[in-house]
Design goal:
InterPro entries: O-antigen_ligase-rel_domated (IPR007016), TPR-like_helical_dom_sf (IPR011990), TPR_rpt (IPR019734), WaaL-like (IPR051533). It comes from Candidatus Giovannonibacteria bacterium GW2011_GWA1_44_25. This is O-antigen ligase-related domain-containing protein. It is built from 33 helices and no strands. With 747 residues, it is mostly helical. Among the domains are: 356 residues, no CATH class; 55 residues. α7 crosses α9 and α10 runs antiparallel to α11. The chain is globular and about 100 Å long.
Length: 747
């Protein structure tokens, strides 16, 4: 193997690494995905899966090439540093946490929604090692960072087109998310690039490049604010202030005194912005602006803020259970269920993140995992300030890491933030390994080239290439095909859901790949079965779908015996299929796993109501209501069962305590009053519905039927006449009803 060939292979790795930043543009099925991943098409969770599969596939291919070059030439092997050991320790601890965690399978694979887990961190480590191994000069790093800056420019243009209404915002109606599909992800991605732009705007000697980067800095900064991500915005402001402070602490001399003026201007801009916000906080301008209004609502009593503190407390309880290695990556859902508090009733029912970097790492990797992760931060900062002389790098990347940490104190990482974080760590590693001469481009020390005669290297190359071929198929191709098959199944469900044989065949195809996507597919099958059971399809079709779904969810429970969510899905199917006792048994197990989850109690109560044991159902619903009397759902369910038990007065007291009135517009409560024959209450509830929608013709028809039950036939006719006025298509049927009533008959 010639030296030139080895260098060419290493150059190919460099080019591949410079292409990797394009991952942020990829949304499964979009223009960029069709360029970089031709033939893949749409995927489940397109904003997540497309980027992750692209990253993993490219990293694995580059890894094979890099190993080839590194085996034959020492200069392409990584040199150690404190940062290197910290990154290695982080991945090593996560590996141990996966092995000894609560659900090793999930810890390794994660799911389509996140696509993290140990498998991702192994790829991040490979990516980091290749960066520090082949990027040996400042020019190498400049090319890499310029490539990601170019991509950030495309993302910025996309974001502004969203702001102008030319492109769809995917996550919400206002908060920009560009090609990342999530405003929080976009915010931290832009913060990383603002730091890179600031660094190279200062360092560049070419005036036109300096001008371009300055313009991009001005262009991209507003995007962070337009995401309305409060933690990111505050983190950016804090980073800017830290940057200004560190600039002021250094004597730049007369020649570079402008640095202090720039820093002073940036700091003043932050203080003016904050001051103006507090001055105009109560104005309509602030209250009607989707960005500023989110800050105006920020307080310890805000629902999101209160829930964060509760969830962090739950995470702390979970950490105490497994303090050394934690629960394993991707297992926060188990902690959330086990320590769930009824006071979280206003939040979404399933959390898989603590939304705090400290507590997430305590759960994923325990104390050792948190120490290793913090080691990457602190050793990176140590290396910046002790191991090299580029003060600008110290200032910029210290400020960036501070902003990044503050951002993560309220949310969590994702592929794009990790991608940038490991790149910055790689650059810091480089800065500690080389001596930069002011104004000279780059000086890099490289080890002596090793000979290539050893035949064992060729054997190692063959093994590595075989391993990469295996990983490309099992780690990427199979899950990718399963994800595409699942998405096609969901499309078929929406267009041809009555063809149960075809839908079940679609699910069988997903299951045939035997990937981590099977878990998601089982839940989707359960939802499909619940819809089929209440449809007008033939009994044979319902039975076939139900049996298939039950079998799938029984497998899900067997594979995830500590996950209350799996038990809930299975119990719902049992209850739908009339297996009430089996459903109660499964729900009792779910209650052991999550003692305060309201949904579990509601389903148990439904099961006992179906069995006719209303007294037991009342006891169950009373217990969960007492845990959190402010819960609207708990109050409604307790009121309903109180009505069925003849406790009408108590039902009114419960509703008054939450809603301030003794009756509310609720279909289930209405059905309960109808079931016990209290049609005066049914009448009053229909009246409440009509207060909300006075022009709803069907409500008037329903109210007419209620008046018939009360013997108020003339009033019923009036409601039918009103329904005919609102819906002329109802005229023939409505007049027929009226004739029947006038004739003394019940229509």
């Amino acid at each position: 193997m010639s030296q030139r060939a080895i260098d060419n292979i290493a150059s190919a790795v460099k080019i591949g690494l410079c292409i990797l930043p394009a991952l942020v543009l990829i949304v499964a099925g979009n223009f960029f995905a069709n360029i970089f991943m031709p033939g893949v098409g749409d995927l489940f969770f397109p904003f997540i899966t497309g980027k992750n599969f692209f990253f993993r596939i490219v990293v694995e291919i580059l890894l094979a090439l890099w190993v080839f070059a590194a085996l034959f030439d020492k200069k392409y092997r990584p040199r150690t540093s404190p940062v290197f050991w910290a990154v290695l320790a982080t991945v090593g601890v996560l590996a141990l946490s996966t092995i000894f965690g609560a659900n090793p399978y999930r810890s390794f694979w994660s799911n389509y929604e996140r696509m993290e887990g140990l498998v991702s961190f192994l790829h991040f480590f490979a990516y980091f090692v290749m960066l520090i191994s082949v990027f040996k000069t400042e020019v190498d790093w400049r090319k890499f960072f310029y490539s990601t800056i170019f991509v950030s420019f495309i993302v910025t243009i996309y974001a502004y087109l969203q702001f102008l209404g030319r492109l769809e915002i995917h996550q919400s109606g206002d908060r920009l998310d560009a090609t990342l599909g999530n405003s929080t992800y976009l915010a931290i991605y832009m913060i990383f690039h603002l730091a890179l732009l600031a660094y190279y705007a200062f360092k560049e000697r070419r005036v036109w490049v300096k001008s371009v980067f300055t313009a991009l800095l001005v262009l991209e900064t507003p995007v962070v604010f337009l995401t309305a991500t409060r933690g990111s915005i505050l983190g950016l402001m804090g980073g800017v202030l830290l940057f200004a402070l560190l600039i002021f602490l250094r004597d730049w001399g007369a020649e570079n005194r402008r640095y202090k003026f720039i820093a002073a201007g940036a700091a003043c801009a932050v203080f003016l912005a904050v001051g103006a916000f507090f001055v105009f906080k109560s104005t309509n301008f602030v209250q009607n602006n989707y960005v500023l209004s989110r800050f105006a609502q920020l307080s310890p009593e805000e629902r999101t803020t209160k829930s964060r503190f509760i969830i962090w407390g739950m995470a702390l309880e979970g950490f105490k259970k497994h303090p050394i290695f934690g629960w394993g990556p991707e297992n926060f859902n188990l902690v959330f269920n086990k320590y769930y508090k009824a006071s979280l009733w206003q939040q979404e029912p399933w959390f898989d993140r603590a939304h705090n970097v400290i507590f997430d790492w305590l759960i994923h990797g325990g104390a050792l995992g948190l120490l290793a992760y913090f080691g990457a931060f602190f050793l990176g900062l140590y290396a910046l300030w002790k191991k090299q002389a580029d003060y600008l790098a110290k200032v910029v990347f210290t400020s960036l890491l501070a902003a990044y940490f503050f951002h993560n104190f309220f949310v969590f990482d994702n592929l794009t933030s990790y991608f940038m974080f490991f790149a910055v760590l790689g650059f810091i590693h480089f800065l500690t390994q080389t001596s930069l001469l002011a104004g000279s481009g780059v000086v890099a020390r490289v080890p002596k080239v090793e000979g290539t005669a050893n035949p064992f290297r060729y054997v190692a190359v063959i093994i590595v290439f075989a391993g990469v071929a295996w990983s490309l198929y099992f780690l990427n191709l199979k899950p990718l095909l399963a994800g595409r098959a699942l998405l096609n199944t969901l499309k078929d469900m929406s267009t041809a859901g009555q063809n149960t044989d075809a839908i079940l065949a679609d699910f069988d195809k997903v299951f045939s790949y035997n990937t981590f996507g099977s878990g998601e597919a089982r839940e989707q099958l359960a939802s499909y079965a619940n819809n089929v059971i209440v449809s007008g399809l033939p009994t044979e079709a319902k039975v076939a779908v139900l049996n298939k779904a039950v079998s799938a969810l029984e497998t899900q429970v067997a594979e995830n015996p500590e996950d209350a969510r799996a038990y809930l899905f299975l119990a719902s199917l049992y209850l739908r299929g009339g297996r009430i006792d089996d459903g109660i048994k499964i729900l009792d197990k779910a209650k052991e796993l999550s003692p305060q989850k309201q949904q579990i109690f509601f389903l148990i109560a439904d099961a006992y109501i179906t069995k006719g044991d209303n007294a037991r159902a009342f006891e169950i619903l009373k217990n969960i209501y007492d845990l959190e009397p402010a819960s609207g759902e708990s109050a409604k369910n307790l009121a309903l069962i109180s009505v069925l038990n003849g406790k009408d007065k108590y039902a009114e007291e419960v509703l008054s305590g939450v809603y301030g009135k003794n009756l509310i517009a609720d279909q289930n409560l209405l059905a309960a009053y109808a079931r016990v024959g209290n049609f005066k209450k049914v009448r009053d509830i229909w009246a409440l519905f009509l207060e909300q929608e006075p022009n709803n013709a069907q409500y008037h028809v329903n109210l007419a039927a209620t008046y018939m039950q009360l013997g108020e036939r003339q009033t019923a006719i009036g409601e039918l006449q009103r329904a005919i006025e609102l819906n002329p298509q109802f005229k023939a049927q409505g007049e027929q009803f009226i004739e029947e009533i006038r004739a003394g008959r019940n229509p």
